[in-house]
Structure formats: structure tokens, C-alpha cells
Design a protein that fits this description.
Blueprint lengths: L3 H10 L4 E6 L7 E6 L2 H18 L2 H42 L1
Antiparallel strand pairs: 1-2
Length: about 100
């Protein structure tokens, strides 16, 4: 039969929502208290698990690849629009000059 400390360690390792603390006193060298986690710790634990799951899944790198491709497409489009705009301005100026004379 496992001791109380082994059960507490096992529950902490298996990811239960229990807080395991150890405190040494002169009379009781290893007192272990197991209690429920407070809401803030539960939220942080869930957040950390979601971040870990996101980083280990393929969704993270795929999202980054799409963002890089989108940025490159936007840069190409802006460059093309600027070039077309410059050429169009020159053409309209030339036509306006010929019409005015």
C-alpha cells in the first residue's frame, strides 16, 4: 500500500487539480497537505496546457506559414499598384499635355 506522500506525488504528476505542499516541523518532519487548487491556479494551468498543445500541434507552424505568404502577397500587390499608378500618372500627364496644345 502506498504511503500518503506517494499518493500525493502521484496525484500531482497525473495532473489532478490538487495542490501538494510539503512542510517540515520539528515534530512532523514531512507533513503533506493536499487541497483543491484556487481558481487562478486552475486558469493558469488550463492556459499553460492550451499553449503547450498549440505549440506541439501542427496548427502553429501552419498559421505562421500562411501569415508569411499573406505578407509576401500584400507586398507584391502594393508594389504592382504603385508601379501601375506611376505609369498611369505619366500617361495621363502626357495625354493632357497633347490635348492642351
Amino acid at each position: 500500500m502506498p504511503s500518503g506522500m506517494e499518493v500525493a506525488k502521484r496525484s500531482a504528476i497525473e495532473g489532478s487539480d490538487a495542490l501538494v505542499t510539503s512542510r517540515a516541523t520539528p515534530r512532523q518532519p514531512h507533513t503533506v497537505r493536499v487541497g483543491p487548487l484556487n481558481p487562478e491556479r486552475i486558469v493558469m494551468k488550463n492556459f499553460a496546457q492550451k499553449v503547450q498543445r498549440f505549440l506541439t500541434s501542427e496548427d502553429g507552424p501552419t498559421a505562421v506559414e500562411y501569415a508569411v505568404m499573406l505578407a509576401l502577397i500584400v507586398i507584391v500587390c502594393l508594389t504592382a499598384i504603385r508601379s501601375i499608378g506611376t505609369n498611369a500618372t505619366a500617361t495621363f500627364s502626357e495625354v493632357a499635355g497633347q490635348l492642351g496644345s
